DNA sequence: CTGACTATTGAGACCTGATCTCGACAAGCA
DNA sequence: TGCTTGTCGAGATCAGGTCTCAATAGTCAG
């Protein structure tokens, strides 16, 4: 298989060069279905013997964030994490135990935002909703007897 | 006037010592009605000739955040800012030009969150909604001819 | 009011996360 | 194949924040 990595595709479509480090980072990221930190990604790169310098890794994250194939999360504790992502506007539901992330569409939030704009007089340009909780799997593990 | 600073009151009510540095930080924070960064607060302290070390300043911010009289915001650009705050659960509407912050109550969000929980199977424990836009004042300045 | 007890402070080392600089390198194209 | 120029790596540097530990100062019992 010639990778068929959507992250690589996005890079290509946007006209960026498909370099070794970028492919490596894209492949590593595609392997996550929860969030990951820059440090974890760095460790994973080292473990897989792919040479990616710190600077390049952050450059790749920045680039992918601009292309909306990765998004940066602010966890409740204040840490930053990244999440592989679809391009459309949506929000994230993060399991605070295992880090698994579910994508959530707006489902009615837009109306609320409009109402807030009306009441406050602000012109609202963007919003961010982050939800934290326990995924089904972690609920089961957390309350085995209940 | 004996200050009557609600931040100081909160500290007192929670049983913390009312020290000089803490009062100074509380007074500085009470002076903001928009958000401020730790660096700005540090500069303000220096300017007002109140001696508060960096460590103490951050310790105070942490403490006040725990007491819910200050909240930490994650701005779209990734910077962290702090906002003087009321204790009840609510969200922030931030002017991306002048930094002015309006408090927004849930107004229907709880239902949406419940719906998301139902669909996803996650048990949602907390959420964070941040809204960014232009306040009325900055709208006027931004589009004077329109 | 005084002294003691302990929370709090300050100075500075340190840490993590991220950005910048700049010469070397290589992807993409003719 | 050979250029052109985008990208890379190494390491300095920065920002935001935490930690250590001896010194200081609230608070309160006496
Ligand atoms: Zn997403
Ligand atoms: Zn989970
Ligand atoms: Zn608030
Ligand atoms: Zn404004």
Please state the average pLDDT score of chain A.
91
Briefly note the CATH topology name of the largest domain in chain A: Arc Repressor Mutant, subunit A
What is the CATH homologous superfamily assignment of the largest domain in chain A?
Answer: Winged helix-like DNA-binding domain superfamily/Winged helix DNA-binding domain
Instruction: Give the oligomeric state of the chains in this entry, treating copies of one chain as homo and distinct chains as hetero.
Output: homodimer
Spell out which ligands are present.
Answer: zinc ion
Task: Work out the radius of gyration of chain A.
Answer: 18 Å
Level-1 CATH class name of the largest domain in chain A = Mainly Alpha
The chain pair forming the largest interface, with residue counts per chain, is: A-B, 37 and 37 residues
* Secondary-structure element order of chain A, N to C: HHHHEEEEHEH
Number of strands of chain A: 5
Poorly predicted parts of chain A:
none
Strand content of chain A: 15-25%
What is the helix tally of chain A? 6
- Measured between the Cα atoms of the first and last residue of chain A, the distance is 46 Å
Q: Architecture of the largest domain in chain A, according to CATH?
A: Orthogonal Bundle
User: How many domains would you count in the coordinates of chain A?
Assistant: 2
Question: Main beta sheet of chain A: strand number and arrangement?
Answer: 3 strands, mixed
| Helical content class of chain A | 40-55%
Overall shape of chain A = globular
